[in-house]
């Protein structure tokens, strides 16, 4: 699954193939099979990126089947 993010460090908006998306039932936060990789900054954690408006729509579609 490709999700659109914005890096909080460099403010670059980018698409990232995160693989299968899951949900942590304790924190209700998404989990990804693959790492989030900013093209400028490298690997980022979920706390170091923001979902763009496009990314929010992509996440909604991806998690509807969970």
- Specify the overall morphology: globular
**What class, by secondary structure content?**
alpha+beta
Tell me the span between the first and last alpha carbons.
14 Å
Low-confidence stretches: none
What is the helix tally?
Answer: 1
Report on the biggest sheet: 3 strands, antiparallel
Give average pLDDT, whole number: 94
Would you count the extended β strands for me? 7
> Oligomer, anyone?
single chain
List the secondary-structure elements in sequence, H or E: EEEEEEEH
Helix content: 10-25%
| Strands side by side in the biggest sheet | 2-1-7
Radius of gyration: 11 Å
Strand content: 35-45%
Number of domains: 1
Question: Which tags fit this structure?
Answer:
66 residues; 7 strands
Task: Characterise the protein shown here.
By secondary structure, the chain is an alpha+beta fold. The chain has one domain (about 1-65). The protein is about 15% helix and about 40% strand. The strands form three sheets. It has a three-stranded antiparallel β-sheet. Strands 3-4 form a two-stranded antiparallel ribbon. Strand 5 (about 35-40) and strand 6 form a beta hairpin. The two termini are about 15 Å apart. The mean pLDDT is about 95.
Summarize the structure.
The protein is an alpha+beta fold and 66 residues long. The chain has one helix and seven strands.
List the helices and strands and how they pair.
Blueprint: E1 2-7, E2 13-17, E3 21-23, E4 30-32, E5 36-38, E6 42-44, E7 49-51, H1 53-63
Antiparallel strand pairs: 1-2, 1-7, 3-4, 5-6
């Amino acid at each position: 699954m490709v999700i659109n993010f914005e890096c909080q460090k460099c403010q670059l908006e980018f698409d990232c193939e995160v693989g299968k998306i899951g949900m942590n039932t304790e924190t209700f936060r998404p989990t990804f099979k693959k790492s989030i990789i900013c093209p400028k900054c490298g690997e980022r954690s979920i706390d170091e990126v923001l979902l763009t408006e496009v990314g929010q729509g992509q996440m909604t579609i991806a998690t509807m089947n969970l």
